[in-house]
Amino acid sequence: MKTPLLNPNSFLFSYTMIINSFLKNITKYLDLGKEIYLSPIYGCKFCGYEGMLHRHGYYSRNVITKYSIHRISILRVKCPSCGKTHAVLPSFLIPYYQYSLEFIFECLYLSFVMKDSYSKIVNLFNSLNPDLSFKASNISSFKKRMNENNSIVNSFFAGFDSLYYDMDYPKVSSIIEKIKVFPKDIFDFNSTFFKMMPKYFFSKV
Ligand SMILES: [Zn+2]
């Protein structure tokens, strides 16, 4: 019997999500709809089963991007070995956040790296997307989560490529810069992080 890759008691929801690298672009995702899920999904992080997971319906959820709010379908799959169901998220999303990865990351970048004020960031996002009521409290909750994730992201970089690794405890701003220059892009960072680490990026620590 295979050893489970995750401790089932560690965090109730962390293993019910799969970050898939199939699509990074929300526009393409909206064009294709459920057809996006034609290719099979393999591998259950919960029990270590490596085969194909069975389709188990869809649910819809909101995605808030810089310019608009969308409703998209998310595939659920079920592991034939352990019976656990997983939601298959495209890599432009972070589990349990309605804001897209790009939105959250840009907000973090503006605050931690560019040192923009909260009011400047709030005004920028609210002017780009008229349907939005983005608040300073959203920024502080993103920043709090990023602070909590900082050392785990640093250890991801250690496993990914020692060139990125900072032996000293790195500042959040330098970790954010490293994510920004990740090979390909931040979406690839998101799916690679999910593949290599026990929890997804930006998870509750
Ligand atoms: Zn399983």
TrEMBL record:
<dbReference type="InterPro" id="IPR045536">
    <property type="entry name" value="DUF6431"/>
</dbReference>
<protein>
    <recommendedName>
        <fullName>DUF6431 domain-containing protein</fullName>
    </recommendedName>
</protein>
<feature type="domain" description="DUF6431">
    <location>
        <begin position="44"/>
        <end position="107"/>
    </location>
</feature>
<dbReference type="Pfam" id="PF20020">
    <property type="entry name" value="DUF6431"/>
</dbReference>
